[in-house]
């Protein structure tokens, strides 16, 4: 690839961290490992795939049936498959860019390479906001699960705080490899919950929120008739289900062999897309307009307890992973190039725990202040999911291939057009989806007279 001389200072600054130090080869991100310190580069390709699945298949899957209810079955499936395809390509670009630029840990380093210092700061803010908001939706999901299992045993505001305390404790585990076994537990948990829901709605007489007297026929539709705002909010919810792409940079950076990343990606996206389509079709087909949000409450009081009981470990792991990834980025940004990044020093531990604590507190405030699950999910998907899952990857491909040896060929021209299309599509979905999500949140707060923030009301009864 032809170099880009207009920004050599940023490339040299980042690459210098991966240089030799007294004959010892250092990792381009983490530097040299200290004796007794954490080994960040130890995630297997299977472990990476599970971590990637868990970054997506947690909170997002619970909003897909409702999105199908807004769009209709056929448009819902087509939109889901289209978003899966585009974000899978985006995910692949992340892995390729990481191999070409080993000094890049995340989108902030990527923006620094392409756009310079200003780009790095803008990307840093966007990345942190995305995952803090996603972590907030995770906190909200855990509080809903605790409410459902305990039959609203205490004030919801207390349950959100309890969720935050759990998230801080588990997210303070320092390496992703040590969290990969928790990701296995979380994956099994969430899959068991959603498939239990699928079986339950298939065998029951009618969904929990449907009229319980007289004959019942499911109200599912092949094609919905939503307003523009409702349609864009539904599409944003589906984007949220696939917005794990920014986390993949962190995962591939901690893989023992980043060249195996495509295997991790293929397994992750194959499983995730298959499960999303299955759950979306079956739950919406049987529940129709009476699907709950989150979807686990669609099968009645008893099954809601069962499903949330099964899902709680998965919801907790999702919340934890989002908090960990955000805190890890800030931690590395603060200590990169210092011995304290990999040493068991006081500075290392104080900085790490401060990062996880501050991240958790901010996520807690968001979860308590915007307690509408569906609205929060669609807002995150629209405003931050598209911003980091569409536009950057198109720009990354163009940057790495603009001076390619096959420039001007049919394939090169097609890929440039595709990359530009992804950038334009992401921009449109970001603007339109954010509009739809904000309209939905305004309507939600109008219905509750604005009293839902820091509320004690049971949040597991949303439909």
Helix content: 55-70%
Alpha-carbon distance between the two ends:
52 Å
* Structural class estimated from helices and strands: mainly alpha
Average residue-wise pLDDT = 83
The largest sheet has its strands arranged as 1-2
Q: What does this molecule look like?
A:
The chain is mostly helical. The chain has a single domain (42-209, 216-461), classed as Amino acid/polyamine transporter I (Up-down Bundle). The chain contains 16 helices and two strands.
Question: What is the fold's blueprint, element by element?
Answer:
Blueprint: H1 8-15, E1 20-21, E2 24-25, H2 45-56, H3 64-71, H4 73-100, H5 107-115, H6 117-150, H7 156-171, H8 176-203, H9 228-241, H10 245-253, H11 261-287, H12 301-335, H13 346-369, H14 373-389, H15 391-401, H16 410-447
Antiparallel strand pairs: 1-2
Report a brief summary of the structure.
With 463 residues, this protein is an all-alpha fold. The chain contains 16 helices and two strands.
What labels describe this entry?
69% helix, L-amino acid transmembrane transporter activity, single chain, 1% strand, mainly alpha, membrane, transmembrane, Amino acid transporter transmembrane domain-containing protein, transmembrane helix, Amino acid/polyamine transporter I, 463 residues, two-stranded antiparallel ribbon
């Amino acid at each position: 690839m032809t170099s880009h001389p207009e920004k050599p200072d940023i490339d040299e600054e980042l690459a210098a961290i991966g240089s030799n130090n007294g004959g010892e080869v250092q990792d381009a991100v983490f530097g040299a490992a200290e004796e007794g310190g954490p080994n960040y580069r130890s995630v297997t390709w299977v472990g990476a795939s599970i971590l990637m699945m868990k970054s997506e298949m947690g909170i997002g899957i619970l909003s897909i049936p409702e999105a199908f209810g807004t769009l209709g079955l056929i448009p819902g499936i087509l939109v889901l498959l289209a978003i899966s395809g585009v974000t899978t390509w985006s995910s692949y670009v992340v892995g390729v860019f990481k191999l070409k630029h080993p000094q890049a840990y995340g989108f902030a380093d990527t923006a620094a390479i392409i756009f310079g210092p200003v780009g790095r700061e803008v990307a840093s803010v966007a990345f942190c906001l995305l995952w803090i908001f996603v972590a907030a939706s995770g906190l909200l999901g855990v509080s809903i699960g605790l409410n459902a299992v305990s039959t609203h045993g205490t004030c919801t505001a207390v349950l959100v705080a309890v969720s935050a305390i759990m998230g801080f404790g588990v997210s303070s585990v320092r390496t992703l490899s040590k969290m990969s076994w928790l990701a296995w537990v979380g994956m099994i948990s969430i899959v068991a919950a959603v498939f239990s829901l699928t079986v339950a709605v298939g065998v029951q007489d009618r969904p929990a929120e449907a009229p319980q007297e007289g004959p019942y026929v499911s109200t599912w539709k092949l094609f919905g008739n939503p307003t523009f705002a409702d349609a864009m909010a539904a599409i944003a919810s589906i984007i949220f289900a696939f917005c794990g792409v920014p986390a993949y940079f962190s995962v591939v950076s901690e893989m023992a062999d980043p060249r195996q990343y495509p295997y991790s990606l293929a397994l992750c996206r194959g499983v995730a897309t298959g499960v999303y389509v299955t759950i979306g079709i079956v739950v919406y087909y049987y529940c129709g307009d009476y699907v709950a949000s989150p979807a686990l409450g669609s099968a009645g009081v008893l099954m809601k307890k069962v499903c949330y009981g099964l899902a709680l470990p998965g919801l907790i792991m999702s919340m934890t992973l989002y908090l960990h990834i955000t805190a890890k980025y800030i931690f590395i940004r603060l200590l990169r190039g210092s011995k304290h990044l990999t040493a068991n020093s006081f500075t290392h531990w104080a900085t790490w725990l401060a990062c996880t604590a501050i991240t958790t507190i901010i996520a807690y405030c968001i979860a308590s202040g915007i307690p509408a699950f569906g609205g929060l999910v669609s807002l995150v998907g629209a405003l931050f999911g598209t911003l980091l899952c569409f536009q950057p990857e198109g720009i990354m491909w163009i940057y790495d291939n603009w001076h390619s040896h096959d420039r001007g060929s049919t394939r090169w021209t097609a890929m440039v057009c595709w990359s530009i299309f992804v950038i334009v599509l992401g921009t449109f979905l970001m603007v339109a989806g954010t509009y739809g999500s904000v309209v939905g949140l305004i309507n939600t707060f109008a219905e509750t007279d604005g009293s839902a923030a820091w509320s004690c009301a049971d949040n597991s009864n949303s439909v």
